[in-house]
Amino acid sequence: MNKKTLTLRLLAYLLSATAAGSALADSASINYRHQFLEDDSMHADRVKLSYRMDNGWGFEGELKYRTAGDRKDVAFDNTVSSGHELTTSYQYKYSAVSTWQPAIQLDSNENGTTYKFGLKYTRKLNDQFYVAARYRFDALKLNRDRIDEEVPDRGSDNRNTQRYEGWLGYTPAGKLSYEYQYIYFDTDYIRYDNKKSDYEQNLIVKYKWDKSWAPFFEIGDIKVSATDDDRQLRWRIGVQYNFM
Q1: CATH of the domain at 238
Q2: pLDDT-derived band of residue 145, with 50, 70 and 90 as boundaries?
Q3: In Å, how far are 12, 136, 140 from 103, measured between CA atoms?
Q4: What domain count does the chain have?
Q5: Quick one: signal sequence residues (predicted)?
Q6: Cα angle at 168 between 235 and 208, to 5 degrees?
Q7: pTM of the model
């Protein structure tokens, strides 16, 4: 089965699962996002389908694409698959203002598969502010053909990452809402500035057009490479459509 056939079957399955579960689902949505990395001059796209049932179980599927070759800096040109990700999570409402959410994710592309195990806690401070924190362990298992143990510092081998995240959200009365995210990475390989650690920051602005449509904009601060301390901006723009 080639990649295009697998992608189409996955998309069809996710759409049918969303439709079938909509009678029981508390929420269901489709999310499209376009991304551009400033220094790398690379465009990428993502489509995510998700639904969460009344009993707390939630399921998500992502299809990822990017532009490639000498046309990687041109949006929607020479587009190739960049893998897919499947997520299963459970949302446990501990109280009226706090929620726990364990999750398991499977992120695959031509280089290998990353197994992600995480636990997120969200707490509503008042009608306008909320905070959240998550710990996630990511285990990358490379395609055996791509493993090269002679590359130093596990640069071309299986890798493990401990990921610590925090969010601060502001949802004032009106259509706009804001969210700041900080991520710290603790790794067993050289990831940034010749060190086995890294960080990212992200600011998200959402606009609630109506009960169904919600466009959003993101700006992120991320690394450029593993061997120097250069940083770059990551621009994202997208829209989410909520079925329920």
Answers
A1: 2.40.160.40
A2: confident
A3: 23, 9, 17
A4: 1
A5: 1-25
A6: 65
A7: 0.85
